[in-house]
Amino acid sequence: MMTLFMVCFFVGLILTLLITLFGVDSFELHGDAGGAQGHGHVHGGPSVFNMSSLLAGVTVFGGMGYVLNKVGMTSALLVLLIAIAAGLVMGWLFFLLYAKVIYKHDDSMKESDFQLSGQLGKLTVPIIGEGIGEMVYVLQGTKRSISVRSENGESIAKGTKVVILNMSKGVATVMAFGD
């Protein structure tokens, strides 16, 4: 049993140090909840099962089990239960820290940031027949532009409000908004 506690403590400690030094905390268990248009992940907040919380729990589990054994606690079941409880509590505390402090200020781009279907904009360069024009739109408070072509090959005048239907090879297919 001591070997289990020592392995958990040292593996958890080493991996925690590596994550701290190299900033790799991308392991999160979450399911595909299907976004508003049937694709993408829901990113309402961090997962309880993030790497920092799991490693904190494993490290404390191993450390607590080792310490309880060294101070002379003889009941293996009691040592195991206390170590599990301590690991769960520490994992939960790390999750709270992660959710309230770290994740709150995380502005990393999400998969949904690249989904432009349904985005409204305005043509700045007209689309002439089968040709390509340009539209501007606002995404996350930033004005952006993209090359566009019309859905059916019809011309669309400059200044017309359009909606993106889909993307193909960096060019958006649009239709006039209101059709």
Automatic annotation (TrEMBL):
Pfam families: NfeD_TM. Coiled coil: none annotated. The keyword Transcription does not apply. The chain crosses the membrane at residues 47-68, 75-99. Keywords: Membrane, Transmembrane, Transmembrane helix. Residues 2-104 form the Membrane protein NfeD2 N-terminal transmembrane domain. It comes from the Bacteria. This is Membrane protein NfeD2 N-terminal transmembrane domain-containing protein. It comes from Paenibacillus pectinilyticus.
